[in-house]
Amino acid sequence: MIHTLQQIFHSGKFKLGFAIFTSLLAFIFIYPIFIPEAPLAILGQGTFFPPGIYVNVYDSLDTSKYIINQEGAAKRRIANKLSEDDRVAIKEYLVAAGVDESRIDITNTDELLQQWKATFDPKRSIKGFTNAKRNYYIRLNTALQSLYSTGPAIIAVNDPETNTLLESKKVTVTEYVNVNEVPTVRIFPLGTDNFGRDMLTELVAATKTSLQIGFIAGLIATLIGLTLGLLAGYIGGFVDDIINFISNLFIVIPPFVLLVLISFSIGQEQRGASTVAAVIGFTSWVWTARAVRSQVISLRNRDHVNLSKLSGHSIPHIILTDILPYIASYVIMAMILQISSGILAEASLSILGLGPKTTEVPTLGLMMNWAMIYQAQLQGNWWAYFPVLAVIALIAFSMNLMNTGLDQVFNPSLRD
Amino acid sequence: MFQPLEHGCTLKKGDEALKGYRKYFLNKLFWFLLTFVAAFLLNFILPRLMPGDPVAVITQKVATGMQSQAAVQAVYQQYAEQFGTNKPLHEQFLLYVTNVFKGNFGTSFSQFPRPVSEIIKASLGWTLALQFPAIIFGWIVGNLLGALAAYLKGTFDKFVMPVSIFISNLPAFGMAVILLVVFAVNLRWFPTSGGYGFDMIPSLRWDFVRSVIHHYQLPFWSIVLIMIGGQAIGMRSMAIYELNADYVKYSRFMGIKDQKIIGYVFRNAMLPQVTGLALSIGTMVGGALIAEIIFSYPGLGTTMLSGIMGQDYPLISAVTLIITLMTLFANFAIEIIYGIIDPRIKAAQSD
After folding, report:
1. Cis bond upstream, residue B113 (ω within 30)
2. Which residue out of B46, B109, B225 would a mutagenesis test of the A interface target, given it has the greatest number of A Cβ atoms within 10 Å?
3. Residues of A in contact with B173 (CB under 8 A)
4. Where in chain A are all domains bearing CATH 1.10.3720.10?
5. Domains contained in chain B, CATH given
6. Do B286 and A353 touch (CB under 8 A)?
7. B104 pLDDT exceeds 90?
8. Helix (H) or strand (E) run with residue B149 in it
9. Cβ contacts (< 8 Å) between A260 and chain B: which residues?
């Protein structure tokens, strides 16, 4: 046993897969200890906040101020204030006003604004522009002029008696606060999702549920496959014919279709994570059954099995002591693959809207489904789907590597 | 004297092979028909295992908002008649099968009063035109790459293998999302969704065809890339196994040209790959249907999604049946081709 384990951990592929998988597992279990938040708690009001550090504006006004004279700060401020749409609009005006298009570079803020100042004339009417558009450019011009103002911004409070605004604070352009001193800071390392939930917390919880689903599905599939395979292979005859018949049917009928039909029949209300896992398990045992059957057939007439038979051992005893140990490695490998394909099956079902009930737990598939429904992929909100995909791929990749590693240890002819 | 004997011999051999093949064909046909019936049975039974009265559930969905009790009762009667739930089970099954063969899948709930068969007809062609070429093309390229990696070894192998392993671990929808984001959203080379420009009416005009081809690229390549990854890995290990076989060493000793040996090796290595295709085509179609959804491609996958979203039971049932039958046919076709290209099948059957 120890020797086998040593051999397994000699395989580079297995080691890499094992390392990836255990670090994923470790992260899943350690993260909730430090951030014990409910994974589905809705924090943000609005959809898809980008990843970053969120500093409370209200509290940062009361935090002690530091004056820092930073070179280029003004330039960056102006560049940031000028939105992409404004730049395109400016270019459109400049081209219409007769500026050579090749001389306009909308990424160069300084030059663009200079060109704008030189060309824009509120009284001039340009052919093809509607009145509304002319007014838009006049508004844009006023906004652009205020870009250069360096005076302080004034914070005012409303006096309830006189109903007038009272100046309470002034904020100049060179004032800074230290993030560490602001009492209310929230970090969203992966942003928020479409419901305003912390993506990282949700992702950790989802990975855990998905692994559980995969594990339950893999366990059920392996148990069914193992039992049927052993029965078919060892007993043979009529039992073998029947089991073979059933598994031949299940091989050709796509498991995907069965999954969809069963999940839909169960209905949204009854579909918890464990139900989905069980359904996946019950539809994916065929391969294990087939493989176990052929292995058992080749073992059935070995000497040690015959000896056991002659000694009058019962069938369960023979199967447990003389056959199972020989196919154990194979069954474990099959189960690893079942787990990873179970996770993928859950993801596919959830994208179709047939995943686990949505109010209880997040799963990787459900997160993918939410991101797709809210069109994160079209709006460039990569943090809503890319980490999910990466986790799915990492799980599948690590399990496949472990499986290949085991395969090479137990089937020496495959070593390259 | 010698010549006719030889001739007679081959004739007899050919005859036997034909007989063997017929046996193989009949065996496969038998299994095909059996799974055909089983597919119908499953599609029929599974929804009827739903807890409670399915017709009552359906009526409830259709009749939400109806005030008069009599109207609800009428709707219930109509569906009970259509599904025949007031008859014994075997009669229901016969009714179901005859309806399907007449092309009558009932009326869609979510796109009322469109008949389901019409919706299916509109989307089936898109799915066939997308998945059939993509799976075949991906299979061929994947096998070529895998064989080359096994034969050339070295840098080519070191490059193809890790890439293939990584790609084949991505789910089909993952590849679809990545292609969509990179080539449609960021680079804007291809449209993000649909089967043709939203401002067009299907016709055989040149700009429509061009738009269809343009929209076809991303879904096509997302399926092809996944296929290539999986097939290349399988073909590589098969080819390595065959390259080390005794007959290769023997042929080399005999001084047979390398090219000729390679031809045999790849023919032998390809056979398990054909079986593999037959066995895994169901899974592939499932994955490709999800990829369709990501691109809102107007095929069966998207139709199924809208059916599920609209709790449209007749539509879902019809789509799953069509998908099962499609896979059954594909599987049968591959098995028949396999019987033709593998000489061992004929030999085994005629023994």
Report:
1. yes
2. B46
3. 347-348, 351, 368
4. 2-42+194-414
5. 115-350 (1.10.3720.10)
6. no
7. no
8. helix B116-152
9. 304, 308, 316, 320
